[in-house]
Amino acid sequence: MKHSNSTESSGEGGSxxxxxxxxxxxxxxAEKQSHITPHREIPxxxxxxxxxxxxLATEAPVEPYHLLSEYHWRKDILLQRLEWSWGMKYDSLDxxxxxxxxxxxxxxxxxxxxGRWLLLPTFEILEKLWKRCTKHAREKLSLKTETLxxxxxxxxYDGAETFEYRLIPLDTDxxxxxxVAHPDxxxxxxxxxxxxxxxxxxxxxxxxxxxxxxxLISHVKPHFVxxxxxxxLFNKRSWPLAPLVSSICGVxxxxxxxxxxxxxxxxxxxxxxxxxxxxxxxxxxxxPMPPLPSRSTLSRKRRRSSRECSGPCFYSKFDWAPTGCTxxxxxxxxxxxxxxxxxESGSDRSDEVSISCDSNDSDGGFLPKAYRENLCKYVGNWIxxxxxxxxxxxxxxxQVGNDxxxxxxxxxxxxxxxxxxxxxxxxxxxxxxxxxNRHSTFVSID
Length: 446
Description:
Layout: H1 21-32, E1 62-66, H2 76-85, E2 101-105, H3 106-113, E3 117-121, H4 123-143, E4 163-169, E5 177-179, E6 189-191, E7 197-199, E8 204-206, E9 216-218, H5 222-234, H6 238-249, H7 253-272, H8 294-302, H9 337-340, H10 369-393, E10 397-398, H11 403-406, H12 422-434, E11 443-444
Antiparallel strand pairs: 1-2, 3-4, 4-9, 5-8, 6-7, 10-11
């Protein structure tokens, strides 16, 4: 994982003193052009341009976009939880900062806002953030407390000011992307009598699945990117997307799955972390909110599908609420619906995460339920893998891992495996884990 630790303020737009623009560009360009490769483009200061096409604001309509959406700026409960999870002081989150803002051409901004693609941080950054999250959960468990202050999330970044991202398409019908070849946003050109540049080189064409698109370098911080990507991935399974992510990011399949899972569950844990009662004592400062763009309503109506939230919801990009909508809650016939009625949010699928905290469990009540449900999901995937291996190799051998726990089971004669549906075994195992069943079966495959 490589970060750029320069003092440049932006990849798509900047806010430094305009009087320093010429001197900074002159020295920075000469020094850094030698380090530019087709896959590592260095952002320049004071340049407002599209993150994807690299077009300047003077060449095409380029608009700013806040990753933690303007729709959430008045949601005090959400902001409290994020500030607490990120180790910030109450009322210190500046949502108008450049670290929460990217710049996109209008057509690509609409596709981004309507959930047709997302930005994905690197596996290394996501792994660090997830380890920070699980470490905090273990500390809460050891201290037997439900609220525990955290260190600043910026410590994970080791002082880096720019970060690497990849475009991950969630829609096969995305338009072709024409990206300017030169990293400074302009091609080699000459000027006519009017002083306007004449672009002499053609942009490079990238189309779905965009695996030829270079790494995107931006000043936006990964925790804001996760706040955008997490809700987009909630209603999508990670395994079908993993081969695409593996191809685009150039990582093994396992890392691709973890990258998607980390993005999904980090948002769930952050947005569900309850701060201490003393954290939000003073009232939040009412800051001016930018006007909500009309394109959002149009995109929402045009792209609405059966997978989207049916109303105010924990995963809604437009109307956040601390509870789940009817679409994201489990139906009444679900095996766990009776236990889930008291939860704030949940999922009706065994491989999706439920992000409520259950403080009634005697042992695991201090761990985020997202963490425990995530474990259940991975156990289910492991069982599915074992079933496939058993069927392909003709059978399996049972092996007892703890004779004292299972009693006389080890003395029973060997029995043939009853051929059952893999989905049924996975569901039963997950329900058993969720209900607190502590008996485990260890299986070795010949």
